């Protein structure tokens, strides 16, 4: 049986996403499976995998996915049926005129099939980070300097994605890309690996790595995020991500996942603290990407959030009693009593 090549199109702005998907389907002579057709499903990505073979008599299908579908779910779904269908392009359509506004949205969308919610801004950024190609639309109204900064920002967020401006006429088609559920395209991962080498740079766009050997004081961290970083005291932090440890939850390593005005900490592993533990094993490793960033200011502010000499010397049992305003995790939690 011939393997059907799939072009998946994602993006936050439905009209622009739909128009691009229609153009691409016409250009390559492939049928289009629309987001409207998939939206009624509890799992649109899995529904696309099920339906696509029936559309693929030409050997290719273009699939437009709803805005609330995670890029990782798309890759997971298509990787499970790789014999019949192959995901060769994951294209994220981004509205240049609204990108920074969309990043600063703090509303949440319900996730299909469960009671959880996901930030709309996080969906957009992670779609960009996992994309094989990013297409900027509505870029003509942007001043040259602003457009240059936006393009450099996209290259920092997704350094391995092909970036282009949508033009009138035929859209150039990138060569097929091997896409898998274990994508590591995100710029923040490259920052943590000291490998970030974006194709385009701009004086306003910065990416840097922050490390610290001591756990963070959760109360001071919340104050820093809410009253200094979010209001823009240190510039516009578009994306920060990595790994951290809150002092009041010392036995669990957490993921730090931040976009614009939303941040989440999720447990990803446990590691008991013993007197012989290496300090570097219990600290922070974070990547920051943004516009007009004050690197020295962010670094000093984060240093002040880490435990002081007195707090650190008191030991993990004392850390459990420190203020912790963040939501509890679903796993076993360290707390007084």
Automatic annotation (TrEMBL):
Q: Which residues cross the membrane?
A: none
Start and end residues of each CobW C-terminal domain: 205-306
Q: Pfam family of this protein, just one? A: CobW_C
> By its UniProt entry, which SUPFAM superfamilies does this protein fall under?
Hypothetical protein YjiA, C-terminal domain (SSF90002)
Q: Which PANTHER family match?
A: COBW DOMAIN-CONTAINING PROTEIN DDB_G0274527, ZINC-REGULATED GTPASE METALLOPROTEIN ACTIVATOR 1
What's the protein here called?
CobW C-terminal domain-containing protein
